[in-house]
Design brief:
With 158 residues, this protein is of the alpha+beta class. Helix content is 27%, strand content 42%. The chain has a 7-stranded antiparallel β-sheet with strand order 1-7-6-5-4-3-2. The chain is globular, with a radius of gyration of 15 Å.
């Protein structure tokens, strides 16, 4: 197995705690509401939302994938960190064992935040990963972040 790591950082004017709530704590209901073309719904199949919880993400009509099984590896509400892995589903395109995402929301001095995301693609055997697919994934992640940010800015009491 080969692990390929990519890092991404995005700044926002949204306060860190609000962004963490929207991106992590409320994501299962918020993202299907604001981006139904990307994610149709999220179904918890095991657990209570904390560490060890297993969810099935059902992708929307705009996605090339049908579903992904996702496991919560770690969640820290005080330090605004969340780690989860995609462990099954067609989103692994037959060449990946798993994809692990480490998310950390860091407060900035101006009252906003920086969203740090590390993605680790764990391949099966010595398989090469298509860089174009990685780029597409990063662009989709950025679009989702921007949609969440816009929703939180437009609905500050949500």
């Amino acid at each position: 197995m080969v692990a390929i790591t990519y890092d991404m950082e995005v700044t926002s004017s949204v306060p860190a705690a609000k962004m963490f709530k929207a991106m992590v704590l409320d994501a299962d209901t918020l993202i299907p509401k604001i981006m139904p073309q990307a994610i149709k719904n999220v179904e918890i199949v095991e657990g209570d939302g904390g560490v060890g919880t297993v969810k099935i993400i059902h992708f929307g009509e705009g996605s090339q994938y049908k579903s992904a099984k996702h496991r919560v590896e770690a969640i820290d509400k005080e330090n605004l960190t969340h780690t989860y892995s995609i462990i099954d589903g067609d989103a692994l395109v037959g060449v990946l064992e798993s994809i692990t995402y480490h998310i950390k929301i860091v407060p900035t001095e101006d009252g906003g935040c920086i969203c740090k995301n590390r993605s680790i693609y764990n391949t099966k055997d010595e398989v090469e990963i298509d860089e174009e697919k990685i780029k597409e994934g990063k662009e989709k992640a950025m679009a989702m972040f921007k949609a969440i940010e816009a929703y939180v800015q437009a609905n500050p009491d949500a």
